[in-house]
Structure formats: structure tokens, C-alpha cells
Amino acid sequence: MTVYGELVRLKSEVPSCYHQSYIQTGYRPINRSILTCIKSAFWPTNEMLNFWTHFISLILMVSRTVRIMINFENKFEVVKFPFYIHSFGTCYLLLVSSIAHLFCCYSERCCQRCFSVDQAAVVVYAICVLLGFDHLACPMSCYGIFSGVTRETYLTGIVILTVLHTSFSLFTLKSPHLAAWRTMPCILMTILIVLPCIIRYTNDTDDPKCFPLADKSFDQFAALCFLAQVFFIALGGIFFATYLPERFYPGTFDIVGQSHQLFHICVSLSMYFQSLLIENGLNKASEQPTVSRNNLSVTWACTVGVFSLVFVLTHTTVLLHDRTRPNIVKITKIT
Description:
Blueprint: H1 4-7, H2 34-39, H3 48-70, H4 81-103, H5 108-137, H6 151-171, H7 179-201, H8 220-242, H9 259-287, H10 290-294, H11 301-324
Helix pairs in contact: 3-4, 3-9, 4-5, 4-9, 5-6, 5-7, 5-9, 5-11, 6-7, 6-11, 7-8, 8-9
């Protein structure tokens, strides 16, 4: 029988790129086979629950998406594109992050590559959330400061920010004093994505411009879903930024209960309420007459086109980073 001590290492026994703040034990040995990486999903290590919290969420999200799609009468109707894109972005992020946590111990180089692609997956997910929100939940052109901004201008700004976020996250990773450059595009991108929803769901408005469908009344269910999503992502951000609870008890939560695991759980719950919000918007759109649905202005260019562009640009950035930055650096896990 394998001795537990042979399966894990102390923090001092693994390269610095694997070090996690306040986590002292439970590190997996590096330079192992792919089969060993897969087996490690069932070992009590500090990555075990990081993998399962994402992988179980992936299974649940895929099954939920399939269940919804089965009930579609016309699966290729253009109004469903934002739903498909949002579902893909969510599942893609969960899949990439699961793979990153599981196979990062294959080698130091693999660790760097895994979490570089993970960065790109986060950006792809963000643009998928935007497209779902903008077409089915909170059209940005109907609210406040966005009232005079065209959708094309808005999406162009978001695309630029996604590329900047990916570039700064990867190419400045070795420079702690450039942390602000890594953070700023992410913050701006997040604000631009959620601000229209904040304006809509914090104002009980019946302005005809506020939603391009026949039913323009305040949607309490959608508002609750949005608030729940914001609550869980904010709570997850607190765990991620503060390293609670292991900050106060280093070594105690190395295997179970560390902040990154709690962050994963909060993110999964946020994704669930987000999917409810998008599904609710899709149901309302599907109930409307075709003429009313056309007011959503769902086009191939503003959905699949924007998604494809961001997907290609972010992953090209990852590829360029991998070819120009051969040195192994400490990785900051974000998913």
C-alpha cells in the first residue's frame, strides 16, 4: 500500500512556482506521468478539492445546459446564440481550470502553460457573460451613461480590454510593481459588463427603452438572481484576496477548507445564478412574437463573431507569451 508521505511534499520540497500563500503541506511531487496526475485527483493533497470543486460544477453545468436545450423547438434560432455562447464560456472555464489544477504537477513548464491558458479562459468567460447579459438580460444601450453608446462601440471597448487584460496578466507576471497594470483592465472590464445590470435591477423602471421586448416591467426574479450572483462573486473575491482562513492558521487548512476551495464554491454558485438569469431572459424572449424578438438585434457578428475574435486573440496572446517567456515564474491561480 502506498504511504501517504510518498504522495505529498512539503512547501520547501517543491519549486516556487507551486507555492501557495500560507499552505505548508499537501503539495504533489512534480515531473510525474499523466496517469499519476489523474490518480492524484483521489489523493488528499492541497489540489484535490481545487480540482473537484470545478469538475463537479462542470458536470452539473453541462447537464443543465443539455436539459434546457432538449426543450428547444428550434435549436438554431438566432435568439438562442447568446445562451449557447454563455453556456460554452462557463463550461470552458470550468474545464480548463479543472485540467490546470489536475495536470500542473506534470512539470514546471506544464504548470506555467496550464495557468496561462487558464487566464485566457477567464477572459473568454467574461466576454460570454457580456454577450449573454447584453442580449438577454441587460442591454447596455438602454441605461444611464450607455444610452448614447452603440452596441458596436461598447463591444469594441470590451474586446480591447480583454486583450489588454490577457497581455498584462501574462507579460507582467514577473513584475510585482506592475500589479496595477494587471488589475486595471480586469476591473474596467468587470464594471462595463455588470454596470448595465446594476442600473437596471436597482431601479424599478418602466421606461420603454429599458428592455427591447413587449414586457418591459421590472423583473423581480431576474433582479434576485443578479444580486445573488454579485453576492457570491464578491464573497469569493474576499476569500481570494484575503487568504482566509489559512492566513490565521497556516498549515491547518492545507487539504480541506483553504480559501481557494471556498473561492471555487462561491464562483460555482455565482455561475448557477448567472445561468438562471440568462435562462430567464431567453424564456422571456422566446415567449415574444417574432417582430418583438427582432428588437433584441441578435446578430451573428455581435455574438459568434465577437466571441470568436476574443477566443482567437486571447489564445494567440498565450501562445506568444509561451514562445517569448521561457523562464518559469511563480503562478498566481485565479480560478
